[in-house]
Design goal:
The protein is α+β, with helices and mostly antiparallel strands. It has a single domain, classed as 3-Layer(aba) Sandwich (Aminopeptidase), CATH 3.40.630.30. 30% of the residues lie in helices and 25% in strands. The chain has an 8-stranded mixed sheet. The radius of gyration is 15 Å and the shape is globular.
Length: 184
């Protein structure tokens, strides 16, 4: 499948490229990632290289994992990553620490999920995060997801476990409003 570029008023979303390798490695060394993400830890440059050389192009080619880089303009520096996985039908995302708190990820989640449901034909998009990841919850809530409960994560963590996770869903054709019932 051909990679898609998406845009919002403030963002340019395109596939991450090899020149993003140092930024990916730097951002993924954030101590929060050790707790809340399934990424290798400690995160090393070779992990970023594998992601950019193998995972991103392979995912777009097969259509099984679609990954976008968040940028403020075409060719601009990497701010974060958002992706969708066919296996779980879910989105996942992270933003580099210097770029948090401006609503950029919520904006990216809205444009990606809109594209997934309109152009890519998905009836719904799932979301999950490890219990305690308040920033991820805030993005999903503001993007219009409905909280569906707490249960083990579908992803396997570095130690082979499936820690408790909060889950949500966004359904096509439903209004994008903040739904009650989210964990605080």
């Amino acid at each position: 499948m051909k990679a898609r570029v998406l845009q919002t008023e403030r963002l340019w979303l395109d596939p991450p490229v090899l020149s993003d390798r140092f930024a990916v490695a730097e951002y993924c060394r954030d101590p929060l990632f050790e707790t809340f993400m399934t990424l290798p830890w400690p995160y090393e440059q070779r992990h970023a290289d594998f992601f950019l050389y193998r995972v991103v192009p392979g995912g777009w080619l097969s259509g099984d994992e679609l990954t976008w880089a968040l940028r403020e303009s075409e060719g601009g520096p990497l701010l974060g990553i958002i992706g969708w996985r066919r296996e779980f039908g879910d989105i996942g995302y992270w933003l580099g620490a210097p770029h948090r708190g401006r609503g950029l990820m919520t904006e990216a989640v809205v444009v990606v999920t809109d594209w997934l449901m309109t152009d890519f034909g998905r009836a719904e998009v799932a979301w999950e995060c490890v219990v305690g990841n308040a920033a991820s919850v805030s993005v999903a809530r503001k993007a219009g997801f409905t909280f569906t409960g707490e249960r083990p994560t579908g992803l396997t963590f570095r130690d082979g476990s499936h820690p408790p996770a909060w889950h949500g869903v966004l359904r096509a054709g439903k209004p994008r409003v903040e739904h009650p019932g989210w964990p605080t």
